[in-house]
Specification:
By secondary structure, the chain is mainly α. It is built from 6 helices and 7 strands, in the order E-H-H-E-E-E-E-E-E-H-H-H-H. It has 2 domains: 78 residues, Irregular (Hormone receptor fold), CATH 4.10.1240; 126 residues, Rhopdopsin 7-helix transmembrane proteins (Up-down Bundle). InterPro entries: GPCR_2, GPCR_2-like_7TM, GPCR_2_CRF_rcpt, GPCR_2_extracell_dom_sf, GPCR_2_extracellular_dom, GPCR_2_secretin-like, GPCR_2_secretin-like_CS.
């Protein structure tokens, strides 16, 4: 089985479609070379969310040096990532980045990364549990059912959505591939929308408090759906 060597890589995943198109243009000459050799079946150039891989002949393995860093984490650039091109001209679904992970756990950068990730996970977990308990209390006891508390529950709902999106993203960063890139984009979008909704509901909290203090007349006519139209409708 032939092994191909290449040192070019990219670590940006800001726009998967644009980078994938750029990857194909980057290896356009290599693609033409394979066609000129009379090879009709081959794996096309592809961007896997971390690196740009060149076209490869069937039944080959392509090796790339691992990136120095990706998404704030450091990796062993002395090792290689590998991707296999099958005999039918189709890439395997997953790039092998196992060799890129530092095996020396005493590396300062890795220790710091693990420490920060642990703090994030513990903090988000405590926040999620606290929010869910609060939501249960608000919905369980009817004496707490009022417009002000309904606004609170919607605000907490945006926080729950944001925390779940982050934890979903963190739990799927161990594997890198096309599906992970789509998941990254989806969860990042959900986090951004949840943050926007959170700001809207914080504004509505202040607006409702202002109406209670200064504009009590006609307050009974306001319903939660009036606020919901603004709080969630701003996302569209």
């Amino acid at each position: 089985m032939e092994v191909l060597e290449n040192n070019t890589f990219s670590s940006s995943i800001a726009d998967f479609s644009a980078i994938n198109a750029l990857c194909q243009r980057l290896y356009q000459n290599a693609t033409h070379s394979l066609i000129n050799e009379g090879i009709k079946i081959f794996c096309p150039s592809i961007y896997d969310g971390v690196m740009c891989w060149p076209p490869a002949k069937p039944n080959t393995i392509v090796n790339f040096p691992c990136p120095d860093s990706f998404e704030g984490a450091t990796y062993n650039s002395q090792s290689n990532a590998t991707r296999r091109c099958l005999a039918n001209g189709v890439w395997v679904n997953r790039t092998e980045y196992d060799n890129c992970i530092w095996t020396n756990t005493t590396t300062p950068d890795r220790d710091e990364t693990i420490y920060l990730q642990t703090i994030y996970c513990v903090g988000y977990s405590i926040s999620l549990i606290s929010l869910l308990v609060s939501l249960f209390i608000f919905f369980r006891f009817r004496t707490l059912h009022c417009l002000r508390n309904f606004i609170h529950t919607h605000l907490m709902g945006t926080l729950v959505l944001r925390v779940i999106a982050w934890m979903t993203l963190y739990g799927n960063t161990s594997s890198v591939g096309n599906s992970t890139v789509y998941l990254y984009n989806a969860t990042t979008a959900i986090q951004s929308l949840a943050s926007l909704a959170m700001i809207c509901w914080m504004f509505l909290e202040g607006l409702h408090l202002l109406k209670i203090v200064y504009w009590t007349y006609g307050l009974h006519r306001i319903r939660i759906w009036h606020y919901a139209v603004f709080g969630w409708g701003m996302l569209t």
